UniProtKB/TrEMBL annotation:
SMART domains per record: AAA (SM00382)
Pfam family name, one: ABC_tran
A single Gene Ontology CC term: membrane protein complex
GO molecular function terms attached to this record: ATP binding; ATP hydrolysis activity; transmembrane transporter activity
Keyword Kinase set for record: no
Name this protein carries in UniProt: ABC transporter domain-containing protein
Keyword S-adenosyl-L-methionine set for record: no
Region annotation (Disordered) ranges: 1-34
UniProt keywords, alphabetically: ATP-binding, Nucleotide-binding, Transport
Annotated Low complexity bias: 10-31
Domain called ABC transporter: residue spans: 57-279
Length: 280
């Protein structure tokens, strides 16, 4: 079991910043920009620097269908959900239930036929491709089941590519790449290319690449599906650390019941709809 991975009682709950975090902010004094706070941040990064009571992403009445050979295939049939800052949210459901389709909509890669998707107030359902691409490059990270690394580039160069794409100033690259590779525990493998790494290590490079530009939202489509349970557990530990120190929200899909134990929230999808307490 992965009970060692379970979130701490103080982990993010919408509208309830952790007691420890609130205490630290108070101790830092009246001026929130003061040196005391900076010192506190350096020591304890669990500070309420993001508003966890307002959704990062809102999905309302979303439907998505595709034309297949003259027929209309209804894949998503009215999805409602909210993702709050610092949450680890999982979408579960059988193959073909619509999880990847929903993840693509949330990330602005695709648009719904009906309904609304608001990311930090930006209406993805009505924004142009260019606008969505811009927001995605700045503020969303993607991780895929098959890692999607550039095979001829080293771990370091793969992460660098994502900073280049996001338009991060070159002067910041070195420090940020080193930080991200350290966060995923790959400092010693930074010059290895993907084929010189294990599956778990490749997935951790993919994570470093996906968070390099400091996205608010990290989306991961079955990130542990190709990994054995130990490597899958490592990936989940890295996800928890990313939420804590990078202040990111993570939404991922999985089939794995053991992995689901570490989620803050699980949405179950059956045939294009959420079931259970999330239905409606
Ligand atoms: N671009 C597309 N064109 C036609 N059908 C699609 C397209 N994308 C997904 N589908 C169909 O939608 C259904 C749900 O797919 P998907 O979202 O990938 O499910 P999951 O990720 O839960 O396995 C499947 O039947 C799939 O074939
Ligand atoms: Mg899928």
């Amino acid at each position: 079991m992965m009970s060692w991975l379970r979130r701490k009682a103080s982990a993010a709950v919408p509208g309830e910043p952790s007691a420890a975090a609130a205490g630290t902010a108070e101790a830092a004094g009246e001026n929130p920009d003061g040196g005391a706070l900076a010192a506190a941040v350096a020591e304890d990064r669990e500070l309420p620097e993001v508003d966890t009571s307002t959704p990062l992403l809102t999905v309302r009445g979303v439907e998505r269908s595709f034309s297949v050979g003259g027929d209309t295939l209804h894949v998503l049939k009215g999805i409602n959900m909210e993702l709050y800052p610092l949450q680890l949210v999982m979408l579960k459901g059988r193959s073909g239930s619509g999880k990847t389709t929903l993840l693509n909509l949330i990330g602005g890669l695709d648009q719904p036929n009906r309904g609304e998707i608001l990311f930090k107030g930006h209406p993805f359902h009505s924004s142009s491709d260019d606008k969505r691409t811009y927001i995605r490059r700045q503020d969303i990270g993607f991780i895929f089941q098959s890692f999607a690394l550039m095979p001829l580039l080293s771990a370091w160069e793969n992460v660098e590519l994502s900073l280049r794409m996001a338009g991060v100033p070159r002067s910041q690259w070195k420090g940020r790449i080193a930080h991200c590779l350290e966060l995923v525990g790959l400092t010693k493998r930074m010059h290895h290319r993907p084929f010189e790494l294990s599956g778990g290590e490749q997935q951790r490079v993919a994570i470093a690449k996906a968070i390099a530009h400091k996205p608010s939202l990290l989306l991961a489509d079955e990130p542990t599906a190709e990994l054995d349970s130990q490597m899958g557990a490592q990936v989940m530990a890295v996800f928890r650390e990313i939420i804590r120190t990078e202040r990111t929200t993570i939404c991922m899909t999985t089939h794995d019941q053991t992995i689901m134990e570490v989620a803050d929230r699980v949405f179950e999808m059956v045939d294009g709809k959420f079931v259970g307490r999330d239905a409606g």
